[in-house]
What we know:
The chain is mostly helical.
Amino acid sequence: MIDINESVMQFLLAFVVLGPLLGAVTALLPAPPGLKGKSPEQAVLRHGTTVTGAVLLAALVLALGFDHDRPSTMQATTDISWIPALDVRIHLGVDGISLPLLVLTALLTFLCALYAYGKPPAGPSPRAFVALVLLLETGTLATFAVLDLLLFFLAFETVLIPMYFLIARWGGAGRTAAAGKFILYTLLGSVVMLLGLLLIGLRAGTFDMVALATDNGRSLSTSLQVIAVLAIGIGLAVKTPMWPLHSWLPDAHTAAPTVGSVLLAGVLLKMGTYGFVRILLPAAPDGMHVLAPYLAAFAVVGILYGSLACLALARPGAGGDLKRLIAYSSVGHMGFVLLGIATLTPTGVNGALFANIAHGLITGLLFFLVGALKERTGTTDLDALAGTTGAALYGTAPRLGGLLAFGAVASLGLPGLAGFWGEMLAMFGAFDPADGLNRPAYLTFMALAGLGTLLTAAYLLLVVRRVCMGTPKPTADPAGPPALPDVHRHEYAAWAPLVALTVLAGLWPAVLLSLTDPAVQQLLSGGKS
């Protein structure tokens, strides 16, 4: 930690949130003659890398200046009246819950911009591509930084349009239908969520999240809390995505460009689970207590459903798509996050927050790798990749194959890597849920989630065996270069931080848990330190 003045911290947080928005606007302007480089397209891609790099640097300085002795306290706060008639305020701040998500978002967006600079996206104008990525970043960062319910909703909705166009204009086969399904599901969920947010804000007399957390639902009846949790929870569950509201996700991932898939899995899915923790747990605790067992049940069904769907896609002859498989794996992994939240315990919620970060790192890496594999082979069909004309990555591109195997074992929860801790803590929370919850039911949920981890290991190891092992594709000239190029320099630059952080979080989980635990303890205790 470094000592930074509070006003500087406020400026840093404001820059983190608004910097990408300014960058998106300037990306649409003509580049000055001296900055065009080899081409205008290269100049705008470099602009995207520069802006996202500056935002990441500001987020890292903000994290260094964060008072780690008081992670449960909102820091770098800005509170300005915006719409006095509705008591809506521009209220920003970070604590131990939101800070890791801010840094993760800034990191993944920078790595996506760096990757796009090294491998420009095929499709329409790079200028529009960069502007949309930056607009997506500002909406996501704002979601994790704002402390007003209506601002949260606006930020939550801001990401929909850029992601829609990233899929619809730069995606692959079926992109129009996939983008339409994405926007339809998320918009319908958001309409219901807005009604719940208005219900809480108007009945409690404030839209301020800090005030609502301090009130801890005392000004809201239990029946009203249940209605609010149902309404808000539906919108959040669509974005998470929770079974059975998940069906937009596989299509969106399969059609999305590599950068779109990385940001969708690594960042956007976290907005839903963050809303459960930031809004519903502190503002409607009684409603959450009533509905928590149902949330846990849906979470466990999602874990098993996602794993079984992946097994079906991974078996020989199924014609499974590797991007689609990883998308279904996200349904299962996010099920562990929801299970941790549904325990209503510090252990479970800390596990959920840890699993959020781990999933962002690992699944972001996997989508980068699958995107690179498609660029080299022209396909993500598992049968094609595993056949005699397939990838056989250990023999043709050993570094790429090694990274894919690393991502797979990290995703299955190998101890010592980031994927292990969140899922383990979520199941520990289910072993001893909060007072008043049905422990036999939660023990059943824990056992079924444990079965899900075994199924996860089965399909991921099957994928590694089919894609990485086997007979390499014969080349016209056996003495010539390998059939597939191995990892390029820009790919190393984009992927190495994710590998390093996956190992760091796995070997030293206290780095993250020391931030989240005090904030979670205070949140679950009703705002009391």
